[in-house]
Amino acid sequence: xxxxNFTWMILLPLAGAPLIYLLGRIGILRWxxxxxxxxxxxxxxxxxxxxxxxxxxxxxTFNQTSIQTFTLGAVNLRLDGLALLISGxxxxxxxxxxIFSGPYLAGxxxxxxxxxxxxxxxxxxxxxxxxxxxxxxWVWFEAMALSTYVLVAFYEARPESLEAGVKYLVxxxxxxxxxxxxxxxxxxxxxxxxxxxxxxxxxxxxxxxGAGALFMVGFGVKAxxxxxxxxxxxxxxxxxxxxxxxxxxxxxxxxxxxMLRALGALMGVSLIWGPLLLVFGAANMLFGNLMALRQNQxxxxxxxxxxxxxxxxxxxxxxxMTFGLANGAEGAFFHLLNHGLMKALAFLxxxxxxxxxYIAHDEHRPLTVEDLAGAARRYPLPTFALSVAVLGLxxxxxxxGFMSKWQxxxxxxxxxxxxxxxxxxxxxxxxxLSLGYYAPIVNRMYRHKASPRVLEGDPLPAxxxxxxxxxxxxxxxxxxxxxxxxxxxxxxxxxLLAVLGGGG
Amino acid sequence: xAVVLTLMTIALPWVGALAVWLIGDAxxxxxxxxxxxxxxxxxxxxxALIPYATGGYEFSVFDAGEAFGRFTxxxxxxxxxxxxxxxIIGCLAVVFSLDYMKGEHQLGRYYAFVLFFVGAMxxxxxxxxxxxxxxxxxxxxLCSYALISFHNDDPKAxxxxxxxxxxxxxxxxxxxxxxxxAYSYLGTFNIxxxxxxxxxxxxxxxxxxxxxxxxxxxAKSxxxxxxxxxxxxxxxxxxVSALIHAATMVNAGVYxxxxxxxxFAAVPAWRITVISIGVIxxxxxxxxxxxxxxxxxxxxxxxxSQLGYMVYAIGAGGIFASQFHLLNHSAFKALxxxxxxxxxxxxxxxxxxxxxGLGRAMPVTRAVFIIGSLALVGIPVLNGxxxxxxxxEAGFLGGPLWAYLLAxxxxxxxxLYTYRCLYLVFYGPSHGKIPPxxxxxxxxAALYPLAIxxxxxxxxxxxxxxxxxxxxxxHEVDLLPTWEMAVEVLxxxxxxxxxxxxxxxxxxWRWRERLSPVANAFHGLAQAASNSYGFExxxxxxxxxxxxxxxxxxxxxxGQLNWNVVAIAGAxxxxxAIVILGSVL
Amino acid sequence: MSWxxxxxxxxxxxxLLGVGLYGLLVLRNLIKVVIAMxxxxxxxxxxxxxxxxxQDQISLGQSLALTxxxxxxxxxxxxxxxxVQVRSHCGTLDVxxxxxxxx
Lengths: 504, 585, 103
Hints:
The complex is a heterotrimer. By secondary structure, chain A is mainly alpha-helical. Chain A contains 20 helices and two strands. In chain A, helix 2 (35-60) runs antiparallel to helix 3, helix 10 runs parallel beside helix 12 (298-323) and helix 11 packs parallel to helix 17. The longest helix of chain A has 32 residues, at 159-190. Chain A is globular and about 65 Å long. Chain B is globular and about 80 Å long. Chain B starts with a helix and ends with a helix. By secondary structure, chain C is an all-alpha fold. Chain C has a single domain, classed as Helix Hairpins (Orthogonal Bundle), CATH 1.10.287. Chain C has three helices and no strands. Chain C has helices spanning 2-26, 30-54, 58-90. The chains are: A mainly alpha, B mainly alpha, C mainly alpha. At the A-B interface, helix 6, helix 8, helix 11, helix 13 and helix 16 of A face helix 5, helix 6, helix 24 and helix 25 of B.
């Protein structure tokens, strides 16, 4: 067996998951207290770091013209630009979350399962990104979904957490089932499952049109397209904050990428996919922002804001699919990266505050906006981090969100289509609207008069600060030098456009 | 050399902001010393840039890729003089803050944002790339928001900050659209190339760019119909009001119009729209200043009104007149605001009805306030007189008669509200507490230079026009030596007309008791003016509607699993229908 | 003959899809919801096998179906485990009682 380099990136976390679980269990049995779960955590972090090294190596040797592939039996993997982007994001965020979750989960049961599932999640996202045929795509998609079902309902003694988990599981499973129907339809119509080959043989037929619709709705549940999103506010707010960060930061994006891969293969079937994405994008933006405006709980607000940001990505991708413009895809992928970083930063800072204000006292209540009053005095770092994240999400310079939104808007205007101009203006207005709920949070945190919860809060463990500092730096640096990310986003856009080259 | 100076003008305040923030609030004296040092350094650097502002010179820092363009800067006359204003007044505001903000909390955040703002403003006027202009535009909006809502515990301040952010952001969309349209047709973000090739764009696209930029400028400079944010922005600490909302950020709109005038002058209906907006704003704001009882609001409305004059001048083609008035206005308005700051700091109130008779206790403040008032009203020898007359002359020659008449009327109203303000604060019986002492040393250190500026900046007319003419190849600026300008103004019949109207305005206040029947006749109008002619109501309606829309949507999140699955099934049916329809049609 | 089987299979697929979706829309008991989900997925599995037959790649169709069966089983196990937890911590299996999180 000849393992090509990049597959280690997927294999290490996958194989590591049971190892983490075993070592964690052994650790807990031998050394009761904090040391046991600590073993699981550090093994998890080490594995993700090792996978990260493989990623860096693959990135350095990446060549757009000769893409690495790997085939073993039914497993079919391709490391193209898009795969590089998503795996990289998943590995970075996964590693930071692993470090962050140490103190956050201290004292909870089943921590070794958490870290094992975390590794499984990261591994399956990388696998999904590299999948080269439809069925592989679905299998990795299912693996990813499975690992998240348990992670969302992690606090299994709490009814709200279980409720979120149940709804998420049922709706996600419905989506997966629809995808299998779609795969069956594609198989019946074309006889092949390899994504590139489908693209060459697919011609318009009712079966394939149905398949495309099923792909869009099926993967759309995971990608949180409105109105398929109803599981999202509950799942993202009830999960432990590290998992919320991953869910908003990579998991819904992975669903989006899966949809793109599937629809990309069907580009020859119809030209409607791009415009449909634009319609969904508009719905997501408006709905996400209006719902977030009325939220009182911080994590729920951030969850709804993820809907809006998926909307911006859909705008860029839709423009790219309909008009074939590189900037659209590049901007959308840049926004995917930035949103991942910013939303993770937001959830981790909110999580840090949630930890200090509630969890450290063994209370499990949601963090509300009122609780944040005056947080700046006692918790300057999480406050600053949350401000950077939130203002970046609102699209203010010099932060990363401004740069990626600009690039998407550039693409929108390059279409010279007045309907797209209107859509871009609509997106800009939505961005402004989002400031209406982001800015008050920042203002509240920098008040002089602190809320009672802040005054009684515990100090923050130092290790939680590390992910916050790193992510905040990344958001600021990308906001000043946007072309630092071009080595990731341009190949990703290239791989998407290569598929679209025939249609649109 | 020009490259280094230009970049330092932008970078020095930013480094200072970082330094001030990192030093921390515990070491407050070091913090304020650093703030003063960096802002002063920036001022010196920008002054050093003046000899290099000969125009036509452009340099690029790096290429940020296709979607962002080359980051180019062009230190020409128009940009450099505004950068000088921003940094110098920025430095004076920081110095003034040493006294004004003494004892406040989180001063690191204050000084950092002030410095960050100064650098961004310098970047805005020195940039030669449309993307960069938009970038700095939005950064100044961020800083303005952060500084207005500096006192986060005051809900009025927070509301004012967010309102400013959103309204100027709304206008910013106009700039965004214009920049993107220009790029999509011309393939470049470079401003000089845009000015050269604007004619090659389709007429409709160019008109959209022109009106988009006009909307952005109107929002930033608080012109009609975007003027509602500026009065609420007065919740900011007064040095911030002086710097951002009198002397620099609000100038950005006027700058934008001036910079792009050559490209848009030929767009049908553009110039008359600019003139209309300018003159309507000037009159409306002046009328609101007459009835306001808040000292800072009077000055805020006055700023809006004077900006209206500048916009009016641009529309009429008087680029030099508008920029000259901008220069002078920055000086005397900053002076007035800082003087007001001294008064507010001493009496603890902004309400004019609680002041009075302060002249005895605060003679220095009264003296500088008088100087600023004379300049604002447009009394000869002070800088405001010369530039206001030039504006009126340009408007008379380049614009319609009705606009000119409204502008003259506004001059009279300006005299009226300024005298009223001066009187209510410093003269007459005292209605409130008498302050124990006059403005502090740091405050005076900031006030004196501005007072001198109000007396002498008009002498720079000659060199100023030379600088503008040399560095703006696409604009048609005539050379105008100072002596010629003085003669021209003093001999023009419009000047005497204006002076007469101003005298009438002053007299109206003086004889207000005798004129009270006349005042009562205008009572309805006065009511409307103090209600901002319905614009505040409009603002509130928009906000309420949005909130209600959000609230209404909440019922879609039923929490019931069965309904959620209904949504999925429904979406599937809808998508299938669209896909089938799409293939059939 | 094959035309008949094709129609029967298609009817079967659509029937399973319909019953499964209907169950998810209407049923209240969490266990029944999980079963309805299983029915839905069985429809998909049948579709895979049918597709394999239609394309004359019966073994590929079957192996795909087998993989889906395995994955679906795991999902159902997780779902039922959650149901057990719901029963013990919420005291009921009624899906309508699980609606504390809304708006």
